[in-house]
Amino acid sequence: MRAAFTIAFRIVGHREDAEDVVQEAFLAALANIRTFDTSRRFGPWLYRIVVTRGLNFRKSRSRRRTESLEIAPPASDAPGPALQAERSDLRGEVAAALARLPERQRMVVQFFELDGFSGAEIAEMLGISPGTVRWYLHQARQTLRGMLAHLEESAG
């Protein structure tokens, strides 16, 4: 359930929307359980449904654009404001660079680097070959290095 939510969240970007996508995916999986090949693992089959539902949701949402409200977490024993601002800026730059990647490359990077899925799992989720996953990951990393090179130079 957690992995399905993470996948949906990576695709749609909002908690409530991701919950809806996961719920729809589970209902779709239940409705189509007879098509599941029991010689294969269930997780990748379900994740593929989540990916498809998430992409479809995002397409339909792009037709009716809305702004979400970001709710700040309560204050805690976090690092000082200067360090928080620096980290926030860095996260923003990385997020912006990821957003500029082609969709498939972005999904592969997020699933592999952030969510810890293997290349084979990603291949099955996205319906592509493991070699294509490796290629997308390689291309995305090269592109990200180029886009974020100024960060390394300013840190040095």
Short description:
This protein has about 160 residues and is mainly α.
Strand residue percentage? under 5%
The general outline is globular
- Rounded to an integer, what's the Rg over CA atoms? 18 Å
Low-pLDDT runs: none
Order of helices and strands: HHHHHHH
Structural category = mainly alpha
Indicate the mean pLDDT.
84
- The number of domains is 2
The profile of the biggest β sheet is:
none
What is the straight-line distance between the termini?
42 Å
How many individual β-strands?
Answer: 0
Number of helices: 7
Q: Helical content, roughly? A: over 70%
Task: Describe the protein.
The structure is a single chain. This protein folds into two domains: 1-66, no CATH class; 94-150, Orthogonal Bundle (Arc Repressor Mutant, subunit A), CATH 1.10.10. The protein has seven helices and no strands. The chain has helices spanning 2-12, 15-31, 42-63, 81-100, 103-114, 119-126, 130-155. The mean pLDDT is 84.
